[in-house]
Protein backbone atom coordinates (compact mmCIF):
# COMPACT_ATOMS: atom_id res chain seq x y z
CA UNK A 1 0.00 0.00 0.00
CA UNK A 2 1.22 3.46 -0.83
CA UNK A 3 0.58 6.89 0.61
CA UNK A 4 -1.77 7.52 -2.36
CA UNK A 5 -3.89 4.51 -1.38
CA UNK A 6 -4.08 5.75 2.20
CA UNK A 7 -5.11 9.21 1.01
CA UNK A 8 -7.81 7.63 -1.17
CA UNK A 9 -9.11 5.51 1.71
CA UNK A 10 -9.14 8.54 4.02
CA UNK A 11 -11.08 10.51 1.42
CA UNK A 12 -13.54 7.65 0.96
CA UNK A 13 -13.97 7.32 4.72
CA UNK A 14 -14.71 11.06 5.04
CA UNK A 15 -17.25 10.87 2.20
CA UNK A 16 -19.01 7.91 3.81
CA UNK A 17 -19.03 9.64 7.19
CA UNK A 18 -20.58 12.75 5.62
CA UNK A 19 -23.22 10.57 3.95
CA UNK A 20 -23.92 8.80 7.25
CA UNK A 21 -24.43 12.16 8.98
CA UNK A 22 -26.67 13.42 6.15
CA UNK A 23 -28.83 10.30 6.34
CA UNK A 24 -29.15 10.64 10.11
CA UNK A 25 -30.37 14.23 9.72
CA UNK A 26 -32.89 13.04 7.16
CA UNK A 27 -33.97 10.25 9.51
CA UNK A 28 -34.54 12.73 12.31
CA UNK A 29 -36.61 14.97 10.03
CA UNK A 30 -38.70 12.02 8.84
CA UNK A 31 -39.32 10.88 12.43
CA UNK A 32 -40.55 14.38 13.35
CA UNK A 33 -42.77 14.41 10.25
CA UNK A 34 -44.24 11.05 11.19
CA UNK A 35 -45.06 12.23 14.71
CA UNK A 36 -46.71 15.37 13.33
CA UNK A 37 -48.71 13.38 10.79
CA UNK A 38 -49.91 10.98 13.49
CA UNK A 39 -51.29 13.93 15.44
CA UNK A 40 -52.88 15.41 12.31
CA UNK A 41 -54.48 12.07 11.39
CA UNK A 42 -56.28 11.99 14.72
CA UNK A 43 -57.72 15.45 14.27
CA UNK A 44 -58.30 15.78 10.52
CA UNK A 45 -61.92 16.85 11.05
CA UNK A 46 -61.27 19.06 14.06
CA UNK A 47 -59.62 22.42 14.30
CA UNK A 48 -56.08 22.21 15.54
CA UNK A 49 -54.12 25.08 16.92
CA UNK A 50 -52.71 27.38 17.80
CA UNK A 51 -49.90 26.56 15.38
CA UNK A 52 -46.61 28.18 14.51
CA UNK A 53 -45.81 27.65 10.83
CA UNK A 54 -42.22 28.39 9.78
CA UNK A 55 -42.11 30.32 6.51
CA UNK A 56 -38.38 30.97 6.41
CA UNK A 57 -35.45 31.13 8.79
CA UNK A 58 -36.62 34.51 10.09
CA UNK A 59 -40.41 34.41 9.73
CA UNK A 60 -43.13 32.15 11.11
CA UNK A 61 -46.90 32.46 11.02
CA UNK A 62 -49.03 32.15 14.11
CA UNK A 63 -52.30 30.39 13.21
CA UNK A 64 -55.13 30.30 15.75
CA UNK A 65 -56.93 27.26 14.30
CA UNK A 66 -56.85 25.15 11.16
CA UNK A 67 -58.17 21.87 9.78
CA UNK A 68 -55.61 19.47 8.40
CA UNK A 69 -57.55 17.42 5.86
CA UNK A 70 -54.68 17.49 3.37
CA UNK A 71 -50.93 17.99 3.45
CA UNK A 72 -48.31 18.71 0.79
CA UNK A 73 -45.55 16.12 0.59
CA UNK A 74 -42.29 16.86 -1.19
CA UNK A 75 -41.80 14.16 -3.79
CA UNK A 76 -38.46 15.52 -5.03
CA UNK A 77 -37.23 18.17 -7.42
CA UNK A 78 -39.57 20.82 -5.93
CA UNK A 79 -42.59 18.68 -6.83
CA UNK A 80 -45.24 18.33 -4.13
CA UNK A 81 -48.19 15.97 -3.93
CA UNK A 82 -51.40 16.79 -2.08
CA UNK A 83 -52.68 13.90 0.03
CA UNK A 84 -54.48 13.11 3.24
CA UNK A 85 -52.49 12.80 6.48
CA UNK A 86 -52.89 9.01 6.48
CA UNK A 87 -51.43 8.61 2.98
CA UNK A 88 -48.65 11.06 3.82
CA UNK A 89 -47.89 9.05 6.96
CA UNK A 90 -47.58 5.91 4.83
CA UNK A 91 -45.21 7.74 2.44
CA UNK A 92 -43.03 9.01 5.30
CA UNK A 93 -42.79 5.54 6.88
CA UNK A 94 -41.69 4.08 3.55
CA UNK A 95 -39.06 6.80 3.16
CA UNK A 96 -37.88 6.23 6.72
CA UNK A 97 -37.34 2.55 5.97
CA UNK A 98 -35.33 3.49 2.85
CA UNK A 99 -33.21 5.89 4.90
CA UNK A 100 -32.67 3.26 7.60
CA UNK A 101 -31.50 0.82 4.91
CA UNK A 102 -29.14 3.47 3.56
CA UNK A 103 -27.75 4.05 7.06
CA UNK A 104 -27.14 0.31 7.45
CA UNK A 105 -25.33 0.12 4.10
CA UNK A 106 -23.18 3.18 4.79
CA UNK A 107 -22.35 1.88 8.28
CA UNK A 108 -21.20 -1.44 6.82
CA UNK A 109 -19.09 0.34 4.21
CA UNK A 110 -17.59 2.64 6.85
CA UNK A 111 -16.52 -0.38 8.88
CA UNK A 112 -14.94 -2.03 5.83
CA UNK A 113 -13.07 1.11 4.79
CA UNK A 114 -11.87 1.66 8.34
CA UNK A 115 -10.41 -1.86 8.44
CA UNK A 116 -8.74 -1.37 5.04
CA UNK A 117 -7.36 2.00 6.13
CA UNK A 118 -5.93 0.58 9.35
CA UNK A 119 -4.33 -2.30 7.43
CA UNK A 120 -2.86 0.08 4.85
CA UNK A 121 -1.43 2.33 7.54
CA UNK A 122 0.07 -0.69 9.29
CA UNK A 123 1.70 -1.88 6.03
CA UNK A 124 3.19 1.56 5.33
CA UNK A 125 4.63 1.75 8.85
CA UNK A 126 6.21 -1.69 8.44
CA UNK A 127 7.70 -0.72 5.08
CA UNK A 128 9.50 2.27 6.62
TrEMBL record:
Keyword terms of this UniProt record: Chaperone, Coiled coil
Keyword field contains Nucleus: no
InterPro entries found in the cross-reference section: Prefoldin (IPR009053), Prefoldin_subunit_alpha (IPR004127)
One Pfam family matching this protein: Prefoldin
UniProt feature coiled coil, ranges: 20-47, 86-123
The keyword Coiled coil is annotated on this UniProt entry: yes
Protein name as it appears in the record: Prefoldin subunit alpha
Organism: Candidatus Korarchaeum cryptofilum
Amino acid sequence: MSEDNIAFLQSLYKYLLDEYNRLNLLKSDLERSIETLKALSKSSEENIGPLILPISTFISLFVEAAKAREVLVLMGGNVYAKMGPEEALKQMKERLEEVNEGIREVSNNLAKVQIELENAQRMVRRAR
